[in-house]
Write a structure and sequence with these properties.
Length: 528
């Protein structure tokens, strides 16, 4: 089967970037809307069989929040709707689990490459570590630590081996922690009085993102409000800085624009940055640090670009701005391929990501209380930005989204402090599926079973012998060592003997003085 031709036929395109000719599918009974042709091609590409699709079609769960429990929904619909639901099996949004532990908005998410460990950061200053294979259906983190008290967490990223992770907080110093949460390194800071940012050794304002580069070399790239993106080598002492890119332009009488995001592009041949000046800039590895190789003006100069996603070949770039998403082809940057302006966001670290096959995009939207709208997870067509499927997140806004290839599950950080994990038992792997197989207690506490008092007759700790042993010991001590009677002293309480205050004063002060006076009395004065 020719995957590329089948996908193009299903999407109704002859080249990347043209709009699909087929209308969107009907809204399913589970609250999901999906392009049926696109989903059918994805099912066939992932190897879904007719028996598996039919089984999932008959019974599946409504995507509402639950903690380890699944809610079955009986489906009575026409044959056409059943075929549509069988095609929805390609997307991991039929089920949802809830990881609740933070008190405020979850602003950072990342999963290591093996898909065994999850790190979440929040505006409540906490970093929480989750181990999927060690959790039960209650889903509790095994480690909680505060990188820097009083500073919210903006980003977290695991290294390629997964032995450590870097954290970006609302401070000038990013930090590196071990896999188990122990602090390993704190970055150096720059001199706030140096106006030329490339002349100082570190950031001079709060950082906005920090990423381990998925490259052969262990490097970290960070971005900051000071308008720079910096490349670091964590293997050196204090993470020596190697390069600095000046994303923001300094204009006379105006502050430098902020750099909101920085990362290695999909082709791993260039770096990409975005800022609050509405521009996306691409930097070659050997280019001038002050001049970008390519600049894309996505929005107005006052529009913030919070995140940028790039395809694996570096050809297509998606920018997430203030309520807008635009798709660009780097071969022609004069006009975007597609754009949308209805994706509401409230947080400056809201992102957008490609799915593992790079045929779809995942993004979260903010809740709009005025219109009684809830936060949603949107699955978009990567060529037209049209909705492929939607899933409600809850009353809170969706602030962060990741789609790890090792799990094929979609993790969404929410405003209510919870992490929503969307999955599909047919196409998803490990992750929360491991925890759902283990039952937990009602309140998430460990079960402690008491076996009563243990008595060992041959041991000295036998409680039955305590009274007898104490009496024997007291009698023996009285006979062998009788307690002497103490003289009663009216100056002390309880009749205990001891020197009075006057006696102690004479011993400490008067006696040494008389002794010294007697020595110096027999010495003759020296004469010149």
């Amino acid at each position: 089967m020719n995957f590329k031709s089948d996908m193009e036929k299903a999407m109704g395109i002859s080249g990347f970037g043209k709009k699909s000719k087929k209308p969107l599918g009907k809204k399913g009974s589970a609250g999901l809307s999906m392009n049926s042709s696109f989903a059918n091609a994805m099912v066939e590409a992932m190897g879904g069989t007719k028996d598996v699709r039919t089984a999932a079609m008959r019974k599946y769960t409504h995507p509402e929040a639950h903690k380890g429990s699944e809610v079955d929904a009986s489906i009575e619909e026409s044959e056409q709707d059943r075929q549509m639901n069988s095609r929805q099996i390609a997307l991991p949004i039929t089920h949802k689990a809830l990881l609740t532990s933070h008190d405020k908005t979850v602003s950072a998410l990342d999963v290591d490459r093996t898909g065994t460990r999850l790190a979440t950061g929040s505006l409540d200053y906490d970093i929480k570590l989750w181990h999927f294979s060690g959790m039960n259906s209650n889903f509790r983190p095994f480690k909680t630590h505060v990188p820097h008290e009083g500073y919210p967490v903006n980003d977290v990223s695991f290294s390629v081996p997964g032995d450590r992770y870097v954290v970006s907080i609302s401070h000038r110093k990013p930090m590196i922690f071990s896999r188990d949460g122990a602090e390993l390194l704190e970055f150096v800071t720059g001199d706030v009085y140096v106006t030329q940012q490339h002349m100082t050794r570190g950031h001079t304002d709060r950082t906005t993102s920090a990423k381990f580069l998925h490259d052969n070399e262990p490097k970290i790239i960070t971005s900051s409000y000071d308008g720079t993106a910096r490349l670091w080598n964590p293997e050196t002492a204090n993470a020596r800085q190697e390069k600095t890119w000046l994303h923001g332009k300094s204009l006379p009488g105006k502050p430098r624009s902020k750099c909101m995001f920085a990362d290695l592009n999909g082709s791993k041949k260039a770096f990409i940055t975005s800022g609050d000046d509405g521009a996306i800039r691409i930097w070659g590895r050997s280019t001038d640090l002050r001049r970008a190789s390519m600049e894309i003006q996505q929005g107005s100069k006052s529009e913030m670009i919070t995140h940028v996603a790039s395809s694996s070949d570096g050809r297509f770039i998606v920018g997430r701005g203030e309520d807008a998403v635009k798709l660009w082809d780097t071969r022609n940057i004069k006009k975007p391929i597609a754009s949308r302006t209805d994706l509401l966001l409230y947080y400056e670290n809201t992102n957008i990501v490609f799915d593992p096959s790079e045929k779809m995009l995942a993004a979260g939207t903010a809740a709009n209380p005025g219109k009684e709208e809830v936060g949603q997870l949107l699955i978009l067509d990567a060529s037209t930005l049209e909705n492929v499927a939607t899933a409600p997140v809850g009353v809170g806004s969706a602030s962060r989204v990741i789609w790890p290839p090792a799990l094929n599950q979609i993790l969404v950080g929410s405003q209510d402090g919870s992490c929503h994990v969307f999955y599909n038992p047919v196409v998803s792997l490990k992750g929360v599926l491991l925890g759902l197989q283990k039952s937990g207690t009602a309140d998430g506490e460990a079960i402690v079973q008491s076996v009563g008092r243990i008595i060992c007759p041959t041991s000295d700790t036998d409680p039955r012998l305590w009274g007898e042993r104490e009496n024997k010991t007291r009698k023996t001590a009285t006979k062998s060592n009788p307690v002497p009677e103490t003289a009663s002293n009216p100056r002390t309480k309880g009749g205990s003997a001891g020197p009075s205050k006057q006696t102690a004063y004479v011993i400490v002060f008067i006696v040494p003085f008389l002794f010294l006076k007697r020595i110096f009395k027999h010495q003759k004065p020296q004469t010149d």
